[in-house]
Structure formats: structure tokens, C-alpha cells
Amino acid sequence: KLWYQRRVRGNHRYWSEQNKQYLALKEELLDEIESLECEDEIERIMGEFYRTYLLSNKTNFNSYTSQWRGHNLKLLYLSGRAKGSRIVRTVRNTFKRSNRVG
């Protein structure tokens, strides 16, 4: 459970930082284009900004996604191990009780 909580906090920190960077860049761009009146031009510029942002962060996002998948696999392993331990403990306790009674 502690490992999972650390992963969730790390995930939150990562995306908070990504969002902060993205919003700062977007705000800069909006300040630059606020005088434009042509909706099509604004839409084109914003689309280009978003595409460029994603492409420039592709390696970082892919690396993070790979790490996150690895963490999820480890979480599945740890969950399975904990469940297995509970099953073994339940079976042992059942046999201990049945040996005392019989």
C-alpha cells in the first residue's frame, strides 16, 4: 500500500509539473496572439502550438508511460503476492482449527 501511495504522489507531481509548464507556454502564446481577430488563424496557431508541444515532449511522455506501465505491473505482482499470503494464512488457520477439534 505504501509503495502504491508513493507512486500516486509521484504521478501527481509529474502531471502537475507538466500542466504548469504547458499552461505557462500556452499563456505566453495567448498573450502574443491576443490581437489577432481571425478565428481561423488563431485556431491554426493553437493547433500548431499543441502539436509542437506534444512532439517536443514525446520522448519524455513515452519514458514516463513506460515507467508507469512498469509500476502497474509491479503493483499487480505485489497485490497478487498479498492475496496469495492471505489465502495461505486462511488455509493454515483452517487446518489448525480442524486439527484441534478432531
- Helical content stands at over 70%
Instruction: Supply the helix-strand structural class.
Output: mainly alpha
Mean pLDDT figure: 89
- Tell me the Rg in angstroms: 25 Å
Low-confidence stretches: none
Sketch the major β-sheet.
none
Which descriptor suits the 3D outline? rod-shaped
Q: What is the H/E order? A: HHH
Strand content: under 5%
Description of the molecule:
The chain has three helices and no strands. The two termini are 39 Å apart. The longest helix is centred in the C-terminal third of the chain and has 44 residues.
Structure in a nutshell:
The protein has 102 residues and is mainly alpha-helical. Helix content is 92%, strand content 0%.
Q: What's the SSE blueprint?
A:
Layout: H1 2-33, H2 39-56, H3 58-101
Helix pairs in contact: 1-2
Write a concise keyword list for the protein shown above.
mainly alpha; 102 residues; single chain
